[in-house]
Automatic annotation (TrEMBL):
InterPro entries on file: DEAD-box_helicase_OB_fold, HA2_WH, Helicase-assoc_dom, Helicase_ATP-bd, P-loop_NTPase
Organism: Mustela putorius furo (European domestic ferret)
Protein name: ATP-dependent RNA helicase homolog DQX1
Chain's gene name: DQX1
Major place of residence: nucleus
SUPFAM superfamilies noted in UniProt: P-loop containing nucleoside triphosphate hydrolases
The keyword Hydrolase is assigned to this record: yes
Organism classification: Eukaryota, Metazoa, Chordata, Craniata, Vertebrata
Subcellular location: Nucleus
PROSITE patterns to which the protein is assigned, alphabetical: HELICASE_ATP_BIND_1
Length: 766
């Protein structure tokens, strides 16, 4: 930490770090004395504590984890292996307090081993926690406390406590072939089983990294459900158990059947709760971002006309596309208006909202799995319990009971009653939890714990990272759950198809360049191919849009909005439409109202703009050739298709019967085009394109392909590796492609023979 050696706070307090830390601990234990609070000095920046610091300190003391403060610091100091496990239920204060105590620990040691780094599985959570912790520590965000998330680094040379998206820290650890510049590393929300979190733990356990450098510490924070597995993985380290929150857990209220329209059922439940005047804020869990936005739009229209005693509820979405606006969920509303926060799996363990008293749970989640597919599936029992605990608190609320629901009075007796009957009989002293599914739904279908993401996602980026940094062979890494060998083999095969590996299985020159981009390998390959096909400007835009802002997120809400959307659609397909959307967004001056009128996510488009700039800067650093914009020309249209196919030949589907039933070449699944596809929204009925390239395949009630563009099979045969076509599963589509390949090969031979005869005749004439 050479930067810290020149840090003003570090230099000022290095010699008295232990004494300062003790003073901070005494201040936090005893609170301000009358007339002395103005004299108390913050040891992290040397400035007097503000009155707000003491106000927040009182709130911190009320958290369940506060009772474990001294135990945690003792274990952190004395842990023989440098690892401490913290186990506690959601909402107990782990994510806000543990980082501050680690900062105290590092301060007492003079930050000699480096600063404190805290990982989060979601960038939005890292941003939100950094803002909250900086406020609680009475420090300036971006100075002593900072955060690092994609496309935004709010840290500086004085940063002592950094919140970081775990994916970024994984890149840092891999790039240094060590543990990075930190003295204490906090791996938060380990029970979410993100790829980066699991891989970070595996790399720290890997023999090639050896022991932790110096006297560093690792703190793993988890839900109690994952504690036994983590105990075994880390060799039974010291464990701090956080006391359970006081109060009675809300009793779940179950429906008899799963509703056919989840959004409508959730909206009805919220409206009924509002009309019954049940106190407290509401948290609604739906599977996808699309349904979150639909629910918010519907509630905003329907709660206004309600005859309520107070102001109408404030409806707030909470999903990764919200950006800094997520802080609105924590702010007090005007005139005491109720907040209705609509979210998905993002808030299962992150984003504890103390004002929540009622939870409405769909019991489902939409997750990305291997090969960029998506699946709609039941949540785990651990997630269901975490959602139920969100409603635990004071003041009490009343139960929420739409028609045809079942209330569980005790484990042995269950009764079915009408909504009005239950409202008159049931009173939940600590909140309410409505489950939009039968009790048997989770008992029969849900796993106990969330599935490890590393066991179900495409492992190509992970394998590329490990090979690039030569940390370890994929099969040699330690994991909480080892990925299936066939998944690792599939990743190696895909990288080989992309020409990222040489004959020995090491990274090729192309593979080294691919690993430099913060993109999936197939998208990075398409971007590199654009250098050859002179469409770099367009592919930069497309890469940013596919990563940050993939089009419309909900159906048009009016005829006017539908007309504005159609004006942005491109005849060449969804990929060209994304480019057209981005260019129109830039021409509008990145106007938020312009986005809202068209159903576009303004924050996501702003992120795409920043990502595009980062990608352009990276290409310039690598000294890759660029090209001038030519979007709209016939040549550019062909070049863009070639660049896309160079990376996405693994994601091609063929309409088998002319009615829009597409067979995926690599998986033999059948799917239809997404309702938001430009080919579906055209007014005049047209035949679906016979061959398409797609970006995402969703496995759900209606399998669909998202972000689709028409391609020519001849171009696929020209650009895909021959052995890829030969290895496709048997199908009529594979036979057609191989026939095309043979025909093109024969034509090439005839052309070469003709050229040879002409050249020979010319020689004779001479």
């Amino acid at each position: 930490m050479q930067g810290l050696n020149h840090c003003p706070a570090f230099c000022r307090y290095y010699q008295s770090a232990t004494m300062a830390s003790q003073r901070l601990g005494l201040a936090e234990e005893s609170g301000p004395n009358p007339g002395e609070s103005e004299l108390a000095v913050n040891p992290f920046d040397g400035l007097p504590f503000s009155s707000r610091y003491y106000e927040l300190l009182e709130q911190r003391r009320a958290l369940p984890i506060w009772a474990s403060r001294f135990i945690f610091l003792e274990q952190l100091e004395s842990s023989p292996g440098g690892v401490v496990l913290v186990s506690g239920e959601p909402g107990s204060g782990k994510s806000t307090q543990i980082p501050q105590w680690c900062a105290e620990f590092a301060l007492a040691r003079g930050f000699q081993e480096g600063r404190v780094t805290v990982t989060q599985p979601h960038p939005l959570a890292a941003l939100s926690l950094a803002m909250r912790v900086a406020d609680e520590m009475d420090l300036t965000l971006g100075h002593e406390v900072g955060y690092s998330i994609p496309q935004e680094d709010c840290t500086g040379p004085d940063t002592l406590l950094r919140f970081c998206w775990d994916g970024l820290l994984l890149q840092e650890v891999a790039s240094t072939r060590g543990t990075g510049a930190w003295g204490v590393l906090v791996l938060d929300e380990a029970q979410e089983r993100s790829v980066a979190s699991d891989l970070l733990q595996g790399l720290l356990q890997n023999a090639r990294l050896g022991n932790l450098p110096g006297d560093s510490r690792v703190v793993v924070v988890t839900d109690p459900a994952l504690e036994p597995k983590l105990q075994a993985f880390w060799g039974n380290p010291p464990t701090v158990h956080v006391p359970r929150r006081p109060g009675t857990c809300p009793t779940p209220v179950y429906r008899d059947t799963v509703p056919t329209d989840r959004v409508e059922a959730a909206c009805q439940a919220v409206i009924e709760l509002c009309t019954k005047e049940a106190p407290g804020d509401v948290l609604v869990y739906l599977p996808s971002e699309e349904e979150i936005l639909l629910c918010c739009e519907s509630l905003s229209r329907e709660v206004g006309p309600l005859a309520l005693r107070g102001p109408p509820p404030r409806v707030l979405p909470l999903h990764p596309g919200c950006g800094p606006a997520v802080q609105a969920a924590y702010e007090d509303t005007d005139l005491g208006a109720r907040k209705v926060v609509v979210t998905h799996w993002l808030a299962d363990f992150s984003f504890s909202l103390p004002s929540i008293r009622h939870v409405i749970d769909s019991g489902l989640e939409l997750r990305s799995i291997r090969a960029e597919s998506q699946v709609l599936r039941p949540i785990s029992k651990c997630q269901a319990e975490a959602r139920r605990l969100r409603a635990k608190g004071v003041p009490p609320g009343k139960s929420l009971c739409p028609t045809e629901i079942k209330h569980e009075k005790n484990p042995h007796t269950q009764t079915q009653e009408t909504c009005s009957g239950l409202l008159s009989q049931v009173f939940l002293p600590s909140g309410s939890c409505l489950c939009l599914y039968p009790k048997s739904f989770l008992e029969l279908e849900a796993p106990l714990l969330p599935t490890a993401r590393i066991c179900e996602v495409n492992l190509s980026p992970v394998v590329l990272l490990l090979k690039r940094r030569q940390i370890a062979e994929p099969g040699e890494c330690h994991f909480l759950d080892q990925p299936a060998p066939e998944a690792l083999m599939q990743a190696l095969e895909d990288l080989d198809y992309l020409a990222a590996l040489d004959d020995d299985g090491n990274l090729s020159d192309l593979g080294v360049i691919l690993s430099e981009f913060p993109l999936p390998p197939e998208l990075a390959k398409a971007l590199l191919a654009s250098c050859e096909f002179n469409c770099v400007d367009e592919m930069l835009t497309l890469a940013a849009m596919l990563t940050a802002a993939p089009g419309f997120t909900h159906p048009p809400l009016s005829a006017e909005e539908a007309a504005l959307r159609r004006a942005l659609e491109h005849t060449d397909g969804d990929h060209s439409s994304l480019i057209q959307v981005y260019e129109a967004f830039i021409q509008s001056g990145a106007d938020k109202a312009w986005c809202q009128a068209r159903g576009l996510n303004w924050a996501a488009l702003c992120q795409a703009q920043k990502l595009r700039g980062d990608l352009l800067e990276l290409m310039q650093q690598i000294e890759l050739p660029l090209s001038q914009p030519a979007f709209g020309s016939e040549q550019n249209r062909t070049d863009l298709q070639k660049a896309l196919l160079s990376g996405y030949f693994l994601k091609v589907a063929r309409d088998t019967d002319g009615t829009g039933n597409y067979l995926l070449l690599t998986h033999k699944h059948v799917a239809q085009l997404s309702p938001y596809c430009c080919y579906r929204s055209r007014r005049s009925p047209t035949r679906p394109p016979p061959w398409v390239l797609y970006h995402t395949f969703s496995i759900s009630k209606d399998n669909c392909l998202s972000i689709v563009s028409e391609i020519q099979p001849q171009m696929l045969v020209e650009l895909a590796p021959p052995y890829f076509l030969s290895n496709l599963p048997p199908s009529e589509s594979r036979d057609l492609l191989n026939q095309l390949r043979e025909g093109m090969a024969d034509s090439s031979v005839e052309s070469e023979s003709s050229s040879t005869r002409e050249f020979g005749d010319a020689c004779v004439l001479q």
